[in-house]
Design a protein that fits this description.
The complex is a heterodimer of chains A (143) and B (354).
Chain A (H helix, E strand, L loop, with lengths): L12 E6 L3 H10 L8 E6 L7 H9 L4 E6 L10 H18 L6 E5 L5 H18 L10
Parallel strand pairs in A: 1-2, 1-3, 3-4
Helix pairs in contact in A: 1-4
Chain B lengths: L1 E6 L3 H10 L5 E8 L2 E7 L16 E2 L3 H4 L9 E5 L1 H12 L8 E6 L5 E2 H6 L1 H4 L5 H9 L6 H4 L11 E5 L4 E6 L2 H9 L5 E2 L5 H17 L6 H7 L8 H5 L20 H10 L8 H11 L9 H5 L10 H11 L28
Parallel strand pairs in B: 2-5, 4-7, 5-6, 6-8
Antiparallel strand pairs in B: 1-9, 1-10, 2-3, 8-9
Classes of the chains: A alpha/beta (143), B alpha/beta (354).
């Protein structure tokens, strides 16, 4: 490969955030002019509980280098208990991903609407971590 | 636990009694046709006769719970089946696919079962029933029980409303585990007395053997291994259809997003560069294993049904057991225990956030 091929790997990250907390935090990070890497593509869900683990599987199997999920802190869900259910589902899908060594590429956070700075910092550390992991091995597979 | 001691010969009368006394409106019992065993749905007590030689037959045809999936009518059905099948029925009750008031779950002891094919082929050696000693003896001759049975720790009847436990020789113990079960036995005018089945040691021995067998199986622990494992899958979804706890009215994988054709396939190929065909083997199985992750009773019906002989027992029960461990949940054990995904605690599982 030529020299230009060695340029830094820019991961593609798919993010699922809840409408009331993390999506608002992302908004706040923007309006507060916090800089963070542009590698994440955020998909807004109305609630953490809308996160069907199938979304995570589909993103990872189709070659996303990283997937993250973020919602309201436990106990602060706009719909009272959506994130409690989401937490159990995440625990289950993480166990399955772990079996096949994919769990490192799936991150989950709780970020509230006022934590714009935390959101920006999280995106920075997330992007670094995924860069460290390198491209998703699924990209090279014919499945 | 209240129960009575019976002999094998009394079974016919017991089952007939359930129908005659109106304890149940119908019965699903094993039924023998020559060397083959499957199930039958009985209304007429006189037809019970053919089932007595089949009740303990070490042969697995379908999971009986799958036969009553969606049985939400008032008529009460009694199901006489192996522990894994009754466990699946309990899960279906929790999933609201079966009405607890319209079933009487009767669990029989199991020592492990052969696939239909093996049972038919070696009927001369296996016979109408087999205890663990005989199964071991046959194993040395190369006649082995299903892998799902070899790794099963729950072969002794300990779930459902009524259990039929095997003792030495012709002895049986029939006991009620629930009020419903005891009520049914009382209606049969059996003289019930307090029974304490001392089977902890036996259960431990079975569990130890099962664990050793599980540890000896090759582990699927990487993407490469999984890809190779599922390479032959034709995505016929037979494993889903025979699975007692896979119950969606319309499966995602029967819908356009889950079952892409034509232009959708081309779009996928454009996204990925190339896609394998038939498409979605990994996506289908990984999604399905998540869907059954808390309710899989490890019956192995999926493996039996696979037309490509993929040893699915090394995938489904092995992985679902790991998920069940984090919720400390044992499927089919207790009908009143909530399903893990329908309950939560305010503080738990924080280690899943990373």
């Amino acid at each position: 490969m030529g020299e230009e091929a060695k340029e830094e790997f820019e991961p593609k990250i798919v993010g699922f955030t809840c409408n009331w907390c993390t999506y608002a935090a992302a908004d706040l990070a923007g309006t507060s002019r916090k800089k963070y890497p542009p590698n994440s593509r955020i998909i807004r869900l109305m609630c953490s509980a809308r996160l069907d683990p199938m979304f995570v599987l589909k993103a990872l199997l189709n070659g996303a280098d990283g997937v993250f999920f973020s919602g309201c802190h436990p106990g602060e869900c706009h719909y009272i208990k959506g994130n409690f259910y989401a937490r159990r589902r995440i625990a289950a899908i993480r166990t399955i991903l772990k079996q096949f060594g994919l769990d490192d590429r799936f991150k989950s956070y709780w970020i509230s609407a006022s934590e714009g700075e935390k959101f920006a910092n999280t995106m920075k550390s997330l992007t670094e971590e995924v860069k460290e992991l390198g491209p998703n091995p699924m990209r090279g597979k014919i499945i | 636990m209240k129960g009575a001691e019976l002999k094998h010969g009394d079974l016919e009368g017991l089952l007939k009694g359930l129908l005659e006394k109106g304890v149940v409106d119908c019965l699903i019992v094993p039924h023998r046709a020559g060397k083959s065993v499957s199930y039958m749905l009985v209304k007429d007590p006189d037809k019970i006769e053919s089932s007595t030689s089949a009740i303990f037959a070490p042969s697995f045809s379908v999971n009986a719970a799958n036969l009553v999936k969606g049985w939400t009518i008032k008529e009460k059905v009694g199901i006489v089946a192996k522990p894994c099948e009754i466990r699946a029925a309990v899960e279906l009750i929790k999933l609201k696919q079966l009405d607890n008031e319209s079933v009487l779950l009767i669990t029989t002891d199991c020592s492990g079962a052969y696939t239909n094919q093996v049972y038919r082929e070696h009927y001369a050696e296996i016979g109408d029933q087999a205890d663990s000693a005989k199964i071991k003896e046959l194993e040395d001759k190369g006649i082995t029980i299903r892998e799902a049975c070899a790794i099963c720790e729950n072969r002794l009847a300990d779930v459902g409303d009524i259990i039929i436990a095997r003792g030495a020789g012709e002895d049986l113990v029939v006991a009620g585990l629930t009020e419903k079960g005891e009520g049914a036995l009382t209606a049969l005018e059996l003289s019930l007395e307090d029974k304490d089945l001392e089977r902890a040691a036996e259960k431990e021995k079975i569990a130890a053997e099962a664990k050793a067998k599980l540890a000896s199986l090759p582990e699927l622990n990487s993407l490469d291994a999984l890809e190779e494992f599922l390479q032959d899958c034709i995505v016929c979804k037979n494993c889903r259809d025979v699975c007692p706890v896979c119950y969606c009215k319309e499966c995602f994988f029967d819908q356009p997003l889950g079952d892409p054709v034509g232009g959708d396939l081309l779009n996928l190929a454009e996204l990925r560069g190339a896609i394998g065909l038939p498409t979605g083997q990994l996506f289908y199985h990984l999604t399905r294993v998540y869907h059954v992750s808390t309710t899989c009773v490890a019956c192995g019906a999926c493996e039996d049904a696979c037309p490509k002989d993929i040893p699915l027992t090394r995938f489904y029960p092995v992985i679902t057991q790991k998920v069940q461990e984090i919720f400390k949940y044992e499927p089919g054990k207790d009908v009143d225990e909530p399903l893990p995904f329908t309950a939560y605690e305010e503080e738990e599982l924080e280690e899943c956030l990373r």
